[in-house]
Each structure stands twice: as structure tokens, then as C-alpha cells.
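Here is one chain, start to finish.
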Amino acid sequence: MKRLLTVIATLLILGGCSSWHNSNIVDPAQRNKILAKDKAFCRQRAEQQVPIGSETDGAPPEPTTYQAEFSGNYAQANTFDKCMTGRGWYKK
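Its structure:
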């Protein structure tokens, strides 16, 4: 259990350290608007394609429940990243 929490915390910290960039957009104000719009689009798309919690259906906490939610979070993050990359963004 402690190991799982450590892994999740590490992924959150490392994932938060990078930022999204798009070399095709030069105006910072425009970049921020487009970034916010693309993030919202990709977040919604990831939530629709990989619904978290659907595997557990509110089951009581146990190792398999945590593993299913961790796998869902990981898959949703990957779906989000692929969507952002497809829209011209990259992490730096």
C-alpha cells in the first residue's frame, strides 16, 4: 500500500514539473488561450475514453480496487498526452 502511494505521488510530482509547448504559436497570450482550450478538449476526451472508477463500481478499498484505479489513471493520462501531442503540443 505504501509503495503504491509512493509511486502515485512520484508520478504526480514528475508530471507536474513539465509544461506544454507549441512551437507553431508565437504570441504568448494566444498560446495560453489555445493551450487552455486544447487541455479542456483533451481532458474531456480522455475522461470519455477511459472512465475511471467504472472497473470498481464503488467497491470497498482493497488491493485490486487500488490497482484498477491506478491503471485507469495511468491510461487516462496517456490518452490525454496523446491527444495533446496530436494537437501540436509537446512537453518540455
